């Protein structure tokens, strides 16, 4: 239910005062690009889109939404893959992308203080002359914003060694929606590694726009490693490649990156950008080792040995930076490359204990056959973070429904082997049903209690991430009935 006409006009008039001129979009055409994130199966036209330029504007917008009871969905760059930034029909979409200034780079403290709309990769680009970079590197890093990274607790290729977003953020400024302090600014975290009291900084990571609006982030910067060497290993079976992943870590080496691609992903990528992958391989591992040159040499020898013992049919060292760049370009282009194989694709994001990867990939193959849909796998193997990419044709009447069932089967298999339904893409709308499988009622009630404490009016990104009790019961009953 939306606002009555008169209230809607008053709301929009007040909003125009906060966001003058073209920074408030209400027309059908100007709003169209904001109707979905990178998961376009969920799409909705909001009441209005506000392009925020400052923390004060964000706070004023939040107060106004509170006054009128209008839901507010935050959006960064809109690259999310779980419909977290999908607007609400009667709500305001508040875009923080225009808040895109790097406010401070401190080489002594090794930190960067940035506005939420700063693009992930721009932090590393700006810090490079200081010999520093920002470690978490989602494959979408040329487009996604740091505010969105915090809200989703984003990961990336190099997070195995350097941690995901929460491990690389020192503090966040958040506009509050909680009862007595709507629109007030909270500083979560600080300059030191730990703070007294509840860890609200950790809480906001992965909060998906449901606990406040992020207006500033101070990230840790990491020294650019003296040397990085890359290995590529080919395998004749997916299981052997998966088992090698655990064996490397068991051998005492934490690679900077440890990624896996299966045959379908290899062939799609090779056709797309000629990365130099072996088209005969059933799977490949791409491995970065970084650090001091002597340390890297030792680790290279250990990992090569482990790969051979694990059954690699070929192990290559990148001969130079050019070859390294080509191999990684292939990995980073895998999504668009796979996108060329079918009219539509759907990328899911489950995480499993590393030693269960092989088993889950084999189960995925069985599910793929059951639903008659092809699945390619390209993922952060070192983290056990799987990204099965389901290919389908949305113009076929039941294709999306089959895709969603296949996705549900894979995610619930991840839970069954001790894993989770998301490693980095968040729950959003996409995985809200699986929350009912991942958590029991008592656990979900704790999430709801936290949400009620920090957003008592339930205006921030409602109906996402945390399912209602009724929805949980309905979904569990459906799954029990075998549907
Ligand atoms: C090709 C491709 C590859 C990808 N690879 C990866 C990967 O390797 N690792 C990974 O983690 N993700 C990956 N993603 C997913 C996506 O890029 C990340 O989830 C990213 O963190 C989203 O950032 P964004 O700025 O686009 O956020 P959006 O999509 O705009 O929003 C995402 C969520 O954050 C909330 N949000 C955004 N800004 C704010 C704010 N200022 N305050 C409060 N809440 C906010 C939104 O409400 C929403 O719930 C990939 C996506 C694509 C399309």
TrEMBL record:
Enzyme type, top EC level: oxidoreductase
EC number: 1.1.3.15
Domain FAD-binding PCMH-type: 42-224
Cofactor: FAD
Gene Ontology molecular-function annotations: (S)-2-hydroxy-acid oxidase activity; FAD binding
PROSITE patterns: FAD_PCMH
Gene3D superfamilies, per database record: 3.30.465.10, 3.30.70.2740, Vanillyl-alcohol Oxidase, Chain A, domain 4
SUPFAM superfamilies assigned to the protein according to its UniProt record, in alphabetical order: FAD-binding/transporter-associated domain-like, FAD-linked oxidases, C-terminal domain
Record's keyword annotation contains Nucleotide-binding: no
Record key words, sorted: FAD, Flavoprotein, Oxidoreductase
Flavoprotein in keyword set: yes
Database matches in PANTHER family: GLYCOLATE OXIDASE SUBUNIT GLCD
Identification of the protein by name: FAD-binding protein
Organism name: Microbulbifer hydrolyticus
Lineage, uppermost ranks: Bacteria, Pseudomonadati, Pseudomonadota, Gammaproteobacteria, Cellvibrionales
């Amino acid at each position: 239910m939306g606002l009555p006409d008169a209230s809607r006009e008053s709301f929009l008039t007040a909003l125009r005062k906060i966001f003058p001129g073209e920074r408030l979009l209400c027309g059908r055409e100007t709003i169209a690009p904001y109707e979905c994130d990178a998961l376009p199966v969920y799409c909705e036209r909001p009441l209005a889109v506000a392009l925020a330029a400052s923390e004060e504007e964000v706070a004023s917008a939040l107060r106004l939404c509170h006054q009128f009871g209008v839901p507010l969905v935050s959006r960064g760059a809109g690259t999310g893959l779980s419909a977290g930034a999908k607007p609400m029909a009667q709500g305001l979409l508040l875009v923080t992308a225009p808040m895109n200034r790097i406010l401070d780079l401190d080489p002594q403290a090794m930190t960067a203080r940035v506005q939420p709309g700063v693009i992930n990769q721009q932090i590393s680009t700006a810090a490079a002359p200081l010999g520093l970079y920002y470690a978490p590197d989602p494959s979408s890093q040329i487009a996604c914003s740091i505010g969105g990274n915090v809200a989703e607790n984003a990961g990336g290729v190099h997070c195995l060694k350097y941690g995901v977003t929460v491990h690389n953020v020192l503090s966040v400024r958040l506009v509050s929606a909680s009862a007595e302090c709507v629109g007030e600014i909270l500083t979560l975290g600080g300059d030191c590694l730990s703070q007294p009291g509840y860890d609200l900084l950790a809480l906001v990571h992965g909060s998906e726009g449901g606990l406040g609006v992020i207006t500033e982030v101070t990230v840790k910067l990491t020294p650019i490693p003296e040397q990085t060497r890359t290995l590529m290993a080919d395998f004749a079976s997916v299981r052997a490649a998966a088992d090698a992943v655990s064996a490397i870590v068991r051998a005492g080496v934490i690679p900077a990156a440890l990624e896996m691609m299966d045959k379908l992903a290899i062939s799609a990528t090779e056709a797309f950008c000629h990365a130099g992958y072996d088209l005969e391989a059933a799977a490949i591992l791409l491995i970065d080792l970084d650090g001091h040159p002597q340390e890297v040499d030792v680790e290279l020898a250990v990992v090569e040995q482990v790969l051979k013992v694990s059954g690699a049919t070929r192990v290559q060292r990148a001969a130079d930076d050019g070859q390294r760049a080509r191999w990684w370009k292939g990995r980073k282009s895998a999504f668009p490359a796979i996108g060329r194989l079918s009219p539509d694709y759907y990328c899911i994001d489950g995480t499993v204990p590393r030693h269960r990867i092989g088993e889950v990939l084999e189960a995925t193959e069985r599910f793929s056959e059951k639903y008659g849909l092809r699945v390619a796998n390209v993922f952060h193997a070192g983290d056990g973070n799987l990204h099965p990419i389901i290919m389908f044709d949305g113009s076929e009447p039941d294709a999306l429904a089959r895709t969603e069932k296949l996705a549900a089967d894979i995610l619930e298999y991840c839970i069954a082997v001790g894993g989770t339904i998301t490693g980095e893409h968040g729950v959003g709308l996409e995985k809200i049903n699986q929350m009912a499988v991942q958590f029991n009622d008592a656990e979900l009630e704790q999430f709801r209690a936290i949400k009620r404490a920090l957003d008592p009016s339930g205006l921030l990104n409602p109906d996402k991430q945390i399912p209602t009790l009724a929805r949980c019961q309905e979904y569990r009953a459906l799954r029990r009935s075998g549907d």
